[in-house]
């Protein structure tokens, strides 16, 4: 049986590793045209990595900010399900729910939901979520400041860093055939729409088409 | 400028609302298999589309440049299990170097 101490140590390890990504978010965000203040506020108030990257990626490609926020919210829809699976372990009052909701993200749920006891589920969830939150915001500020100080982002390949960051987020989902198919269809449809629609739309339409196809596709039916 | 702030506010409110709602709704409400499967697929579909646009789009035209090389390097490093941050930095460096040549 895992000790409380090792749950905390593991959680802090995940917190350190994940919180450091904030540097790349900060740099990419300011090189996409957002101010340091906007960049830091996004990390403070949105606090869900993939959604934040999606938003600034769409702004960088000239998309409408509302299209960007819609894409970010769709990507954040998985947090809804994380909340559902954590709720029985946390047993929160409505006031506690308000204070806790912000920390519901991929990593805190992963480190909390698998624990055998309620006590360790809570330890894993809060130590992971809060340590990532603190580091993510500090490293966002550092990256935003550095990104702002160095001039044209293309010289440093920062525009190419966005694609690499998204690929890193997508990577675990490419392990399954369905994940690969859905990602490929999303990419192909989006690319086909780039010349035809305004910036930002190819992403939502491509992603939507891919999800629809994924829902219809049954492994084994196709040869 | 105002539109950008508007987008940030909508995103912040929307993302928090999803997290809060998850902690508040009873499990059975979201147990419909179609909902569960759709939510599992959304990240892969959207990220695939995001990568394609980020790497190939230049406004409304499609073009191949140093960004594709950087993406290739990122894929190789991910296959080698290089952690996220060094992988992103290496991809950026490759694009920067390719543009110097």
Describe the structure.
The complex is a heterodimer of chains A (223) and B (101). Chain A is mostly helical and 223 residues long. Chain A has two domains: 4-174, no CATH class; 176-222, no CATH class. Helices cover 74% and strands 0% of the residues of chain A. Chain A has twelve helices and no strands. Chain A has helices spanning 4-19, 22-31, 36-45, 49-60, 65-75, 77-90, 94-100, 106-113, 118-149, 158-170, 177-193, 201-216. Chain A is globular, with a radius of gyration of 19 Å. The model of chain A has no long low-confidence stretch (mean pLDDT 90). With 101 residues, chain B is mainly alpha-helical. Chain B has helices spanning 2-24, 33-56, 66-79, 84-100, and strands at residues 57-58, 61-62. Chain B has a two-stranded antiparallel ribbon with strand order 1-2. In chain B, a hairpin with a 2-residue loop joins strand 1 (57-58) and strand 2. The longest helix of chain B is centred in the middle third of the chain and has 24 residues, at 33-56. The radius of gyration of chain B is 19 Å and the shape is elongated. At the A-B interface, helix 3, helix 4, helix 5, helix 6 and helix 7 of A face helix 1, helix 2, strand 2, helix 3 and helix 4 of B. Chain A: Its main location: membrane. Chain A: Keywords: Cell membrane, Membrane, Transmembrane, Transmembrane helix, Transport.
